[in-house]
Amino acid sequence: MTAAVKWPYYSRLASSLSPYVPGEQPKDGKFIKLNTNENPYPPSPKVYEAIRNAADGKLRLYPDPSSTAYREAVASRWNISTEQVFAGNGSDEILAFAFAAFFNSRNDEGAEPILFPNISYSFYPVYAALWNILYRTPELDGEFQINPADYMQKCGGVILANPNAPTGRILDVKALGKIAEAQDKNGRVLIVDEAYISFADLPGAGSMIPCFNEHPNILVIHTLSKDASLAGMRTAYAAGSAELINGLCRVRDSFNSYTMDRLVQAASAAAVSDTAYYDEINAKVRRTRDRCAAALGSLGFTVVPSQTNFIFVSPPSPVAAAELFAELRDRGILVRHFNLPLIDNYLRISMGTDDEMDILINACREIIAGH
Question: What is the pTM of this model?
Answer without folding.
Answer: 0.94
